[in-house]
Amino acid sequence: MTDPAARLATRRTETVALIESLDRRLAGIIESSEHTTNDDEHDPEGVTVAFERAQVAGLLAQARTELQALDAAAERLAAGTYGICERCGNPIAPERLDALPATTRCIHCADLR
After folding, report:
1. What pLDDT does 108 receive?
2. In the chain, fewer beta carbons within 10 Å around the N or the C end?
């Protein structure tokens, strides 16, 4: 198991980079669509562009949610409650924390959802 603070910092850096990349990609999609017709019915590319825009927007929303979860995990680490299941109060397995550093539930409690 890696150091929790290092693990969270690494994942946060990766997530911020992903958000920046997706922001640029979404801006590019929006900019390129401003220079084309808005007639999705007759433009064969219209549906594809709309799908790509929605897909990138969804990925961006997921990344922003992950960033919030990582920041909350850092707060739990500072408070001394990181790695403790919010539901049952038992420790979260180190392997689970390695895979999902921002998780708040042990595998057993996560399965109960």
Report:
1. 96
2. C
Q: What CA–CA distance (Å, rounded) separates 107 from 20?
A: 31
What per-residue confidence (pLDDT) applies to 88?
96
Calculate mean pLDDT across residues 79-88: 97
Please give the share of the chain, as a percent, with pLDDT higher than 70: 88
> What is the pTM for the complete model shown?
0.84
Q: How far apart are CA 62 and CA 110, in angstroms?
A: 19
d(CA 10, CA 93): 19
How many whole angstroms separate alpha carbon 81 and alpha carbon 47?
A: 47
Give residue 55's identity as a one-letter amino acid code: Q
